[in-house]
Amino acid sequence: MRRSVVALAAFALVGLLAACGGGDGGGEAGLEEDTIHIANARARSPMRDVAAVYFTAHNGQEVADRLLGVSSPAAGRAEIHETVEEDGVMRMRPVEAVPIGPGEEVRFEPGGYHVMLFDLTEPLEVDSTVTVVLEFERAGQIPIEAIVEPSVPEEEEEGMDHMGDMATGEGMG
């Protein structure tokens, strides 16, 4: 009898985990074949009120699409940014849209495209998740859950001129 109860509980747990995606906040969103797929979503918050979100976007559609905007209930403001080199210094700049051709993949990563969250409603805790809604021209809104990782070590930030800008948002446009 006890063995039956344990087996039934294990079966129920496996079913629950499958239905919930295993709790992996960095998993894929937009799993339909003809839409945008988002994978490996993660966030880092080097300051109490600012965070960067990184992920990989794959266009599974037969037509091009564009990421037009972002939002998050965890932030007062969210923007799409690109890191560019200017006079030997890496700087962040907001962008209006990020094109993704049919069958193509765009990585949102440190040193390239990324999402910035400003005016966080509360500090992000490592290993928690933060909800970000991506707004695509054709695919529409795709909500993702980004896993919060530890902030980047200082040696990786060397040469970046954006920490002061991130706090105020000045000089980014």
List the helices and strands and how they pair.
Blueprint: H1 2-20, E1 36-47, E2 50-59, E3 65-71, E4 75-86, E5 89-94, E6 98-100, E7 105-108, E8 113-120, E9 129-136, E10 140-149, H2 154-157, H3 163-168
Assign an overall shape: globular
Structural class: alpha+beta
CATH architecture descriptor name? Sandwich
Summed up, the domain count is: 1
Strand content: over 45%
> Which percent range fits the helix content?
10-25%
Biggest sheet architecture? 10 strands, mixed
Q: What is the end-to-end distance?
A: 68 Å
Taken in chain order, the helices and strands follow as HEEEEEEEEEEHH
Jot down its keywords.
single chain, 173 residues, alpha+beta, Immunoglobulin-like, ten-stranded mixed β-sheet, 3 helices, globular, disordered N terminus
